[in-house]
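Sample entry (128 residues):
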Amino acid sequence: MGGREIYVQIEKDLSEYSEEVRKESFEVFAQVAQEAVTRLKATSPRSKGGGKHYASGWRAKKDKKNLRVVVHNATKPGLTYLLEESHPIKNQYGTFGMSKAIPHIRPVEEWANEEVLRRVEEVLSKGD
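Predicted structure, serialized as tokens:
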């Protein structure tokens, strides 16, 4: 089950609870998202020249109206897929190999999904 499906299910489950529980759950989303940003900044690849523009570009965007938090790379969004997955490398003469995949997003996503579920269950158990 991917991250989006988990959040859709959580939204459906939370719609049955009080507004107070929904707000507490949103705070959990925001906290986990901020921790995910910190982890991504620490584990993202950096250029050999010492630059860290990609790694430092991770942000958590809050949407309080829809109770969502999105983690994204604000500075180099197009690099996320290219770095996470292997892809053909091309030059002016054609394709000459494949890049090495650097999985740095998926482990953080998996951790965040598990952590959100664990923390939201704690919030829900307090509400009972």
